[in-house]
Design a protein that fits this description.
With 261 residues, the protein is an alpha/beta fold. The protein is built from 8 helices and 10 strands.
Length: 261
């Protein structure tokens, strides 16, 4: 496996060891991760709590330096990709600034990096995430789903090639979560970004993904990679198909086996 058109993001033998110099206190968060991710794909990471899903996401985005191993994005290192602003981050908590409006929160990254704000482009983002008419609302007046839409628009504001999403819909109720997943697929189709998505929800993983990466309990390793071959575009009706249920059952069985070990 190597970096090419098929592997836009590439990790080779990546390990993260905390307190690596102290044998008694060291903790292996990730162990020997080798992985290739295609451009314009959606990949989800699932696995037991504490298995290193967020750590792996942060390694890809160069928010954490691996203790050993290589992370490459296209023809550059993960660090160079971060400096070139390849990554947009959507955390579980939208972390909006309460004293700024929807519009002001979305353009904040542009202000920080000193990039020119083109209101027509920003309005296009607002339209894309379905917040037209809410430009001048403050976060206190928004629902949880609307706040996450602002967070997604903010991450897209400087046109990153890759979205890193760390359980962004985990706090939402089931129906709103389904709606946000459909909105995310619509945004992905229109922007052509590559998405790496952390979730605990097997159904969500099947609905969104081209590939589901199942991670083992600590130390985090790749236990299995399951391609999801459900035709796109997808709707929630696809989740009641026999094929979707087969994937859900397969992934659940892998996780049950992992918890049993």
């Amino acid at each position: 496996m190597q970096v090419n058109a098929e592997n836009f993001i590439y990790l080779q033998d990546v390990s993260v060891i905390y307190n690596a110099d102290n044998a008694e206190k060291q903790f292996i968060a990730l162990s020997s991760i080798t992985l290739g991710i295609k451009k314009h794909s959606i990949v989800t990471l699932i696995g037991p709590s504490g298995c290193g899903k967020s750590t792996l996401l942060n390694c890809i985005g160069n928010l954490i330096e691996p203790t050993r191993g290589l992370v490459q994005v296209g023809e550059v290192t993960a660090e160079e990709a971060r400096l070139k602003r390849f990554f947009g981050l959507v955390p579980q908590d939208p972390t909006l600034l309460d004293w700024k409006t929807v519009l002001e929160n979305i353009i904040l990254p542009l202000r920080i990096i000193g990039k020119k704000v083109v209101l027509q482009e920003v309005q296009g983002l607002i339209d894309l995430v379905g917040l037209s008419g809410f430009e001048n609302f403050y976060p206190s007046a928004l629902s949880g789903g609307m706040k996450q839409r602002v967070s997604i628009a903010r991450a897209l504001s400087y046109n990153p090639q890759i979205l890193l999403m760390d359980e962004p819909f985990g706090a939402l109720d089931a129906l709103l979560r389904d709606k946000m997943n459909q909105e995310l697929l619509s945004i992905w189709q229109k922007t052509g970004s590559t998405i790496i998505f952390v979730t605990h929800d097997i159904t969500e993983a099947v609905f969104l993904s081209d590939q589901v990466i199942v991670m083992s309990q600590s130390p985090g390793r790749i236990k299995e990679i399951v391609p999801i071959e459900i035709p796109r575009p997808r709707t929630t009706k696809d989740l009641i198909s026999a094929k979707a249920h087969a994937y859900i059952d397969q992934l659940r069985a892998i996780l049950v086996e992992e918890y049993a070990e």
